[in-house]
Design a protein that fits this description.
With about 900 residues, the protein is mostly beta strands. A 5-stranded mixed β-sheet has the order 60-68-67-62-63. A 4-stranded antiparallel β-sheet has the order 1-58-57-56. A 4-stranded antiparallel β-sheet has the order 2-3-4-5, with no helix packed on it. The protein is globular and about 100 Å long. The termini are far apart. The N terminus is likely disordered.
Amino acid sequence: MKQITLLFLLIVQSTIAQNSLFNQVEAKNIGPTIMSGRVVDLAVNPKNPTEFYVAYATGGLWYTNNNGTSFSPMMDSAETVNCGSVTVDWNSGTIWVGTGEVNASRSSYAGVGVLKSSDKGKTWENLGLKDSHHISRIWVNPSNLNEIVVAAVGHLYTTNKERGIYKSIDGGKSWKQTLFVAEDAGIIDLAVSKNNPKIMFAASWQKDRKAWHFDGDGEKSGIYKSEDGGTSWKLVTTKESGFPANEGVGRIGLALFNENLIYAVVDNQNKRPKTASKNKLTTMLSTPGADFMEISNKELNIALKESGFRDKYRAENIKNWVTDNNMEPKEVLAVLSDANKALFETEVIGCEVYKSEDGGKSWKKTNQNYIDDMFYTYGYYFANISVDEKNQNRVYIGGVPLLFSEDGGKTFTAISKENVHADHHVTWVNPENPNHIINGNDGGVNISYDNGEHWIKCNNEAVSQFYAVNVDYQENYNVYGGMQDNGVWFGPNNYSHNVAWHQEGKYPYQELMGGDGMQTQIDSRNPNVVFTGYQFGNYYKINQKEGKFDYITPKAPKGEKPYRFNWQTPILLSSHNQDILYMGSEFLHRSMNQGETWERISGDLTNGAKEGNVAFGTLTTISESKFQFGLLYAGSDDGKIHVSKDGGVSWQLISGNLPQNLWVSRVAASTYKKERVYATLNGYRNDIFESYAYVSEDFGATWTSISNGLTEAVNVIVEDSANENILYVGTDNGLFISLDKGTTWQDFSNGMPKVAVHDAVIQTKAKELIVGTHGRSIYKMDISKVQELTKDVLAKNIHLFKINDRTKSERWGSQNYAWGKPSEPSQDIWFYSNGDEMVNVSVTNEAGMVVHFQKVDAKKGLNSFTYDYSLSKEVAEKWNKKDKNIKIKEAENKKFYLPVGKYKMAVSKDKVTETKSFEVSAPKK
């Protein structure tokens, strides 16, 4: 059923794109590029390693043939850019992409099966396995491209049957499931012997992810072997094999040296012997308060990670509880012990490396000591291993650092340096030069030619994963955004990718803070004052001019449990008074002095805490009406929406008639009508990808669905700032627009691939829509003409929009230097057509003489063409003869240009003509 639903959504989305009125309204990417995004796989040409493909988790497939100096996108025409793996046949140039990231992150988006391109990425064919959602590996027989073996992880949040190993012998026309472990255990890795491709090893992984809890291990995790090219399989990691075989086995990564010698890295979640256990956090929290506050945030964060609190608390949270004698460290220890007692009792084993020298029959652990500070408690995110094809003792493993062993995994050293991002997912080792390695991590691609002593950073493309975006209102306004694992940055709205900053020494975007960057609010009175932070509610008031960073997160009163903060905690500056700041935990908090002090203005607005290792039962979205101070809305991760009409004194639940238990991705009070409010729900964390968007005209008492025609889960809804009928919606696969308050929807993503849109905001003065994507950085769209599409305009056969006046320059057509391009004037002329047909365009002077004529092939909707103010030689000569006061001379570029004067442009079709006046004025002296 889910396959049918997915196919239907893809058909609907394709139809919406074809019927859009906005195929000439282009989204312009404005970066940033320098911090890149999460790499999941590499495919390198072994004969020419300067040529390779990079697969990004949510940014698509990119190609370079100049060693990473530049990249070209290969999947912008595909039905998704969510990648899990990539395989290339370098002889034919054929590419296979396994879609859907396999790292089991909170934003590991599902794919659409196996995609194949036979023309180097120009077009893509879907080979099926759509309900597998996440594909970890694709092996194609280099001697027979019709023989394909696919490793499928399966659904992220729910169980399903389409997971395991699939084999095709007809190039993907049909598939046979040759290995099925369980509905909650898929295949996370596949390794094939190069010398004997009949020999294959596959790693199964049992996991259970929910929005509130992640269990990344189980007894169904193990290693299977095939001796007939993937047709049949046998479990080799039995209890007698020497490899861990119990419910503590997590993610496994594989690397074959040959058909007999194989390495495996495993996230071993079994407990260490108590004598070996050394819980750092317990020791830290047993010290007096003053001493505890001297512990560095880095050390405390490491201890929190090792004790399983990466997805709940950070060092700043804990220290905030202790400041002002609010809690003693031992009281914090009691709270944390209660929340995660099992992890405090003893530490997990973590990263281990095993080796088999008899084709998987028996296994021995290679590492002599515990590999600490490698996986922490989220080995599910890593577990990848590589081996030098010429030397079995040279082994690489990826985790938070990148580690290298030259003694067969007995000992390891870190080789990731200061310009290499943490969190490593793939490492390619050159078979002809083992000191040449290419690494993919959460911050892009790095290349080393001396085995990690020095690294080249190859972050040239806009593939950042944004959670939230915002803008200020300076003359040349800035764009702000928080990114997955790459902090909070801001930069100019007119950024265009180039490398001039290498010469100038300063990248146009600047970092505000690190971590997983989250929401940003900017004081409209003083853009130097910014409120932002990182995961789980760690927020700051930053005064950039004064260099101040003040931690402002509210803390629970003494004796109460710490507040629960969402991964992306919502904050909001009141439009009525920029000293008033709202912030959500399970409660709504309000500060009247920009975060110096807080008051709780609600009860628990969620269904309450839910037992698990991820914070849940938290607020996700806040909105305040522009019409009334204190008319507030709040939505939660467990599906509740509340309204308060009295500044938080009382609250009413208004989501009872909506679908239940879905993530409230957005609630937005209308700026046109006090009673109107919009809400969007998201089922991604239930593997439900339908769209849920609603509007209420009575403060949420009743709701009307406005989802018809949308595809994929909805993340954000934005009401247009100038046209009440226009809405914008960002989904997990694109951007959409409605011209009729949500009754119908059209594609609005020209210039963008099918990427997840997490946030959007309108800069009202510039009339530009800023779009934050989770995989392709930030886009900007000029919506000035869109906003003018009123009902009256849409009822016309044709409509010509305003034409801007222009100042004449004597330099038109001239070069500034010998090798430069001529300076040529131009203006984009916009018009609306109610059908597909040819349109006549003419320009007349004050005497009524036609000085320019052209035909434009118009499509239904908004159209544009570039007008360059030029005249034909014949028109210039005729005009000179008619008017002795006019002297139109040929420019250096052999063109003739309009002289100073007043003009009219007309567009016509079907005997209907629209005209607009414009002027070419003399330059000021």
